[in-house]
Amino acid sequence: MSGVLGGFAxxxxxxxxxxxxxxxxxLGGGAPAILSRLSFFVATPALLFLTLGEADTHAxxxxxxxxxxxxxxxxxxxxAGLAWWxxxxxxxxxxxxxxxxxxxxxxxxxxxxxVYILGDASYVAPVLLFxxxxxxxxGLAVLAGSRAEGEKAPTWRELLMQxxxxxxxxxxxxxxxxxxxxxxxxxTVLEPVELIAALAVPAxxxxxxxxxxxxxxxxxxELAGQVWLAVALKNVAMPAIAYALGRWVADLDGxxxxxxxxxxxxxxxxxxxxxxxxxxxxxxxxxxxxxxSTVLSVPVLVGIALLLG
Length: 309
Prior knowledge:
Layout: H1 2-24, H2 31-53, H3 65-87, H4 91-102, H5 110-118, H6 125-145, H7 156-161, H8 167-181, H9 187-197, H10 200-212, H11 224-248, H12 254-264, H13 270-279, H14 283-308
Helix pairs in contact: 1-5, 1-10, 2-8, 2-9, 2-10, 2-13, 3-4, 3-11, 3-12, 4-6, 4-11, 4-14, 5-12, 6-8, 10-13, 11-12, 11-14, 12-14, 13-14
């Protein structure tokens, strides 16, 4: 349990530091946006390049994807359908909500949770690869292609080409090329990339913490319904769908089934806030869903471990 709690504690401490920095005002009011853009455009592509450069590219085709990828796609579609039916939200806001519902924290929390509950960190590889290779490019294409009211809507060609101009997708592509080639980069090349990549998570967490200063209570006001819909789908529906798909479609059992359910029950990833803040689409929704889903994921993960472990 110490590994899981330690992972949550580390995130909480860095976010708290960000809150203190935001409260002090020493970096100015524009600091959260600058840190988010630094993480998105510079550090996260470097991190994904390093992560995928060492990955087993065959992991993305694992049978576990039936449960993990299937539950993510279905949860995202459920949110998009229900939110459009209830609130008639534009595509960009629907996309942020759908990502907040389905994009799990496989990088920061997935590893300690996987090691403690499953005994092997590699179980998070399929969902991590699916997210960076499929979910992120699709979501970012919609967010980057969105326009302010009155501006010309993007064409299908623009939407399809947008991922090729997105830094995180470029970082993923270069990492996969490195992994497929089997080449090993010299230390003189890797060391500066590693230094830049190390900024990705703390910069995003600090920016997130700074936005919490002076913010209203989570899930308050007109966003309350959207936030709780996303949280309910993320913390309850998504792991339940993963269990059903894993057991009755992929015919998994034992640790393999537990791995699918546990990874699907991870809270919303900080990446969603960075994506939303970068394009200024659904930032408050992403912030609240990340906070609430992270808090509620603790009893959910413990319950899953007790029931299926």
